[in-house]
Amino acid sequence: MKRRNFITAIGTVAVASPFIGALSSCAAESKTFEGHKFPDLGYDFNALEPYIDAQTMELHYTKHHQGYFNNFMKAADGTEMLETPLEKIFATISQQSETIRNNGGGFYNHTLFWENMTPSPTEIAVELKQAIENDFGSFDAFKDKFGTAAKTRFGSGWAWLAVGTDGKLFVTSTPNQDNPLMDVAGEKGTPILGLDVWEHAYYLHYQNRRAEYVDNFWNIVNWEVVKNRLVLAKA
C-alpha cells in the first residue's frame, strides 16, 4: 500500500463506525481525507479518566481540534486543497501559508491523537513489539526515548513514533502543529503514534507536571491501532 493510501485508510475516521473498531480492522470503512471531514471522537469525554479528565477532553476536542479544522477549511476555501489529501499538502507545506501549515497540521495531528488512545487498553501485538525491539533494542528503551522526546520538547509540540522511508521506526518531536509528513520536518516519515504536549492537552489536570502526563499516556495507548498503522506504512 502506498503512503497516500495509508493516509486514506487511517487519516480520517470522520464517518467510520464504530471509530476504534474501524481502525482496529485497518479502517476498511473509513473515508479519505478528500472532503476533509471532521472526525467523531469515538468515546465519551470521560472515558480516559483518570489519565485524561473529561473537561480537558471536551475542550480539546470541541474547541481546539474543531478550531483547527474550521480555520483550515476557511483558509483552503476556493483552492484545490479542499480536495487534496493532507499528506500531499504536507509534502510541500513549505510553499503554503502559516495558516494552512498550523491548522492543517492541527487538524491531522489531533485526528491521529484520538485514535491513539482507548478506554480499553490493548496488548501490544507481537509484530509491533518485535519491530520496536529490532529498531530500539528493547521496548523499555523505546518508551524511554519517546518519553524523553515528549518531556523535553520545548514549548508546544508533539512526540512521534514514525516509520522512515527505510522502513525503520524512529522517535522524533516537532514544534507547534508540525508532523513528520511535512517537508519542513527534521526527520521525515509516516507517524504511527503521536502525543500532544501542548499545555492545553494536560494543564487542567496536571498543571506543570508534563512528565506525569507523558508517563500516564502509556496506560491508554491503543496498540492495535499503532500496529495497524505500522502494517499499512510498510505495505
What does the secondary structure layout of this molecule look like, with pairings?
Layout: H1 3-10, H2 19-24, H3 54-76, H4 86-91, H5 98-116, H6 126-136, H7 139-152, E1 157-163, E2 169-175, E3 190-196, H8 203-206, H9 210-217, H10 223-234
Helix pairs in contact: 3-5
Q: Mind explaining what this structure looks like?
A:
By secondary structure, the protein is mainly alpha-helical. The chain has one domain: minor pseudopilin epsh fold (3-Layer(bab) Sandwich). Helices cover 47% and strands 9% of the residues. It has a three-stranded antiparallel β-sheet.
Overall shape: it is: globular
Helix content: 40-55%
Query: What value does the Rg take, in angstroms?
Result: 16 Å
Task: Indicate the CATH topology.
Answer: minor pseudopilin epsh fold
Uncertain spans: 1-33
| Main structural class | mainly alpha
Broad CATH class: Alpha Beta
The averaged pLDDT comes out at 87
Briefly characterize the structure.
This protein has 235 residues and is mostly helical.
Q: Key terms for this structure?
A:
single chain, mainly alpha, minor pseudopilin epsh fold, 3-stranded antiparallel sheet, 47% helix
